[in-house]
Amino acid sequence: MRLLGLSAVFIILVNCGASAQGQFENCSGPNLDIRIAACSALIQAHPENVSDFSSIYNNRGSGYAAKGQLDQAILDYSQAIYLNSNFALAYSNRGAAYEALGRIELALQDYDKAIALAPDFRVAYNNRCYALAELGHPEEGLKDCDKAV
Fold first, then answer.
1. CB neighbours of 25 closer than 8 A, spacing ≥ 6?
2. How many other C-beta atoms can be found within 10 angstroms of the C-beta atom of residue 76?
3. pLDDT (tens digit, 9 = 90+) per residue, 17-26?
């Protein structure tokens, strides 16, 4: 069985008239190509029943990040943050993408913001723990690891 490329999946979603509900489900689904295509379709269509485009950008960014397309993921996470400046998950996700690119200082800024917005956000503490260790601050990082647990 041959896998379809992203553009082919996008065309199928649009041309088949996939329902907005189906696109919402696909936009957070496990198949990365379908997720990216569905999120892109929702963004381009601007359906009236979408109250939170920031989540759509975040979901698409997560799809790109999982495929290793980190620069595109950062663009989507940044758009999610632009649309909702209180979106702790988008900050944490963007931080992880920055960290994967070796941009640790930017990652720490995003983890700090995520934690400031959501003080019980264990994933952000865990991410910041490892980023601090990468910068040579393992003792400080261990405090965050403890909070993550």
1. 38
2. 29
3. 446 677 889 9
